[in-house]
Protein 1
Amino acid sequence: MAFQVGRQQPKYDVQIGVPLARLRPTIMKRWDLFCKVIDNYGDAGVCWRLARQLASEHGLTVTLWIDELANLSRLAPGLAIAREDQQVAGVRVRHLTEAPSSFALPDVVVEGFGCGLPQRYLESMAAAPRAPIWINLEYLSAEPWVDSAHGLPSPQPRLPLTRYFYFPGFTAGTGGLLRERDPLAERERAQADGGARAAMLRAFGVGQTPPEALVASLFCYPNLALPTLLDGWAEGDAPVVCLVPEGVATAALDAWTGGAVPHAGQALVHGPLTVAAIPFVEQDAYDRILWHCDLNFVRGEDSFVRAQWAGRPFVWHIYPQSDDAHRAKLDEFLERFRSGLDSPDFGRVEAFWHAWNEGDGAATAAAWPDFRATFPALGVHGRGWARRLAALPDLAGELVRFSRDRL
Ligand code: TRH
């Protein structure tokens, strides 16, 4: 329905004579998601995963407006970065500019991370006989205040519109976590397939790997602790295979390899350590890498959540904030994650995470052996943690319910 000024909305569906109010839940089908890429891949990653799930699992007609198509194309193969308007994986992807050409107002607008909506779009929402439900998807946080802020309305000062704050989170009082239908079953099946990991390593050009080797995936921000950790692994006695997506930790690898940073498909061997550069793969393929590794270094938001669904030991490199607010956020998560883990083991996990997030090479290398020793317990804990989170409502499902309750 293209947007027109002053058209009266019928109170009854003339065909079947049922009050429209009763019909509305079924017509909340058209959703627009807005995403502006700050940096890295998380903004696009979260919005792309949500858009696909709303379309595939909830049968909604979803348009993702995004300003950086090139960024999204790394996560969504098949996306043509030169095309302004296209359909990919069941989602309509439109290039977001400040003056979008023609558009039809949807039933629900999801603004990713307070990215802001084009002025003309906002004005048409305000002028619409029935304004779309407007939801601001916030960044994920484990901080306790999130529960009380989740769902709060924010009436707009200059427009007759209300925007709702929607906070993802780790409790029933928040908006939940992005989780597709039954991810744990699919993961269990994949992890039970003895040959899957060897096939993955072969595909990445990693030669024969001893069965006891520790296979780690490394998705981190620039981190001064990395060269020291790699040294520790190279001088150790246990075989380690470190998979590094292309473009990640390049400066540290450059320093460590003396300028011979491996390209995708190439592996460098230093004693018991193999550093293998792997391609940046599409989102679902990245999930499978996490499933088949013994340890996952992750960062930001989306990979952080995916590592928890993978149920394997992981290390979170939180997005550093200038005011160091990230430290408290990291500790708030650790405080939740620790439940069920015995204190000595938790202490070892916390020490390694803190050292890694401080970029403190010596502390990271020193904390590694103790951290490594927790993996049997941490593996069991991780799977229990994933089951506990999976018992909570998922973000996409909650978002649909949330929007319906605000009709
Ligand atoms: O890329 P990130 O560091 O993004 C961050 C976070 O969003 C953070 O909240 C935000 O403040 C900051 O950007 C600006 O990390 P994140 O959130 O894990 O997003 C990475 C995405 O990339 C995720 O969707 C997984 C995806 N990915 C792939 O699809 N293929 C890959 O090969 C890899 C390594 C990642």
Protein 2
Amino acid sequence: MSLTVVKKAAVLIIFLQTVHLVLWYSSVKGKPRAMYEQNGNISVNICPLIPQGLVGKINVEKSNTDWLKIESKYTMVSNGSHHPENCSARHKVAILVPFRDRESHLRIFLNHMHAFLMKQQLEYAIYVVELDKDIPFNRGFLFNVGFMEATKDKEFGCFVFHDVDLLPLNDQNLYQCPDQPRHMSVAIDKYKFKLLYDENFGGVSSMSKDHFKTINGYSNLFFGWGGEDDDLFNRIVSNKMIITRILSNIASYTMLPHIHASENPLRYEVLTTGKNESTQNKDGLSNLKYHVTEKIYRKLFVHIKVTINKADAIDQLKSRIKESSKLQKLFNLSNSTFKKKLRKHTRSRIKQNKF
Ligand code: BGC
């Protein structure tokens, strides 16, 4: 090859590279850094790894604002969701909130959380899930329903399981799902900012979609207060995952005052009988049955109202526990109704040859 051909080729290559560079520069000029990543190639407009503008400690507005005021404040929120305008969010997060009779808490919660989540540049939606009043409250079951219903709406990769009365006090507490399940409400003012016990996974926690499916979600059998989060901890351990926590000065929360709900008299029994993996695989997302009576896409949240077959629930519980008198009390059943339900249960157990 003659020298002039080589020279011409070299000039052509330099020319093409310059054109490429000029084109690339003009396309990224003036745009935020997050617009391009990975070896400087223009790619999707991804939001920064650490959201900009986080300040640490934040105030909580606990005064009772009315719906109109909050709704008009959040003009950019619709259907309970929001996504950043200038970049594409790294995380798609569903915030699931079990709910009963706490309307004033819900308003304070939404007012605080929308501002908080927006700052974190997430693509998120808030789901408030409410069980028929006729059935005792069941936090774990409501999380399972929220998970299924949110998943129908969007490919959420991360789920935050959130009590309505807990509000984060630090905006650096990132609502994302790291490699392992995360207990987020490490330090709560009501408990003098001290973790109650190492295995605690209650209050606020987060898990990836895959992890939550792997552990078969929450148990559906904890009616009334307590135990469902301890059971979830057991599921995490059974599946060889670990719980992670960040520093307590960041993972800090304030709790809105409320009357303590009545404790589930069966919680220890359901907890201890649910420790083995085969029981965990049978009770959770895998056997979740519910009927959505309403799914309303309100401006600041998706409101899901749900009901279950009471007799079914009693049947399932009966196969796990011995203390039937407590079960009768829990479901507020008269003696005769309860006996009828028990007879039905016994008949079906005999049919299945379980005695
Ligand atoms: C209950 C948990 C609860 C924890 C902290 C435990 O006894 O079983 O459900 O989260 O106390 O209140």
